[in-house]
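Continuing the series of single-chain predictions for the mutant panel. This is the parent chain; the variants come on the following pages.
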Amino acid sequence: MESLFLLIPIAAVFVVIAVAIFIWAVKGDQFEDLNREGERILFDDDDDTPKS
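Parent structure:
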């Protein structure tokens, strides 16, 4: 029972940190362009120049 008095506040702090990071990511436009990275992986750049 005594361990709950320690674990519940620690869990609450972790939840607050996770929510703060999520809000920071949303406000920083991290989720604006969801298709670009998926298309970048699938389609090659059309660079015909040899790399040296």
